[in-house]
Structures are given as structure tokens and as C-alpha cells.
Automatic annotation (TrEMBL):
PANTHER family: ATP SYNTHASE ASSEMBLY FACTOR FMC1, MITOCHONDRIAL
A Pfam family matched in the record: Complex1_LYR_2
InterPro entries assigned to the protein according to its UniProt record, in alphabetical order: Fmc1 (IPR039196)
Domain of life: Eukaryota
Organism for this UniProt entry: Psilocybe cubensis (Psychedelic mushroom)
A biological process from GO: mitochondrial proton-transporting ATP synthase complex assembly
A single Gene Ontology CC term: mitochondrial matrix
Protein name: ATP synthase assembly factor FMC1, mitochondrial
């Protein structure tokens, strides 16, 4: 059972690291609650293991969702003005130049 707990905990750490922009060590305060839960996992409480698996799947799904948004929606992370300009360019228009009067 110890190796099973270690596998779950390492899987969670892997998903947390992959979900960061630049993969690096995950903050200890984020990992501490998951570690305490992993230490308490045993065969008498299958629901705790299922909850842990659900947490890992949720983090993985969030990472995949973000990747798909970035891939299929190129305007995802643009500001409102940049989004308007990109949309106009897509249909063949150019945005008028705005002159600042000072």
C-alpha cells in the first residue's frame, strides 16, 4: 500500500509541475494538504483514494483545457484592443489609426 500512496502522490506532483508555466518546484504550502491526505490513504477508505484520483484528473483536465484554448482560439490571451484589431485583420479590414492630440 505504501508504493500505491507514493505513486498517487508523485502523480499529483507531476501534474502540478506540468500545470505551471515554467515547470519548477511546486510551493510547499500547496502540496502539504495533498501530502497529508496521501499519508492517510489505506484500504479501509476507498473513497479517499477516489477523491485523490479525482484531484489528479481535475488538474490534468484543467491543463489540457488551457492548452486547447490556446491552440484553437488564438485570440484567447489578447487584450480587448488587440482582439478587435486581429478580428478586423481576419476579415480583411485595417483598423483606423487613432491620433493622440496633446
Amino acid at each position: 500500500m505504501l508504493s500505491d500512496r507514493v505513486t498517487l502522490y508523485r502523480g499529483l506532483l507531476r501534474e502540478l509541475r506540468l500545470s505551471l508555466k515554467a515547470p519548477r518546484k511546486v510551493n510547499k504550502h500547496v502540496v502539504a494538504p495533498f501530502r497529508s491526505i496521501a499519508e492517510k490513504l489505506d484500504d479501509s477508505n476507498p473513497r479517499a483514494r477516489q477523491d485523490y484520483d479525482n484531484a489528479i484528473n481535475f488538474i490534468r483536465a484543467q491543463r489540457e483545457h488551457k492548452r486547447l484554448l490556446e491552440r484553437y482560439n488564438p485570440l484567447f490571451d489578447l487584450t480587448a484592443q488587440e482582439r478587435i484589431k486581429a478580428t478586423a485583420n481576419r476579415v480583411g479590414f485595417n483598423m483606423p489609426k487613432i491620433h493622440n492630440e496633446q
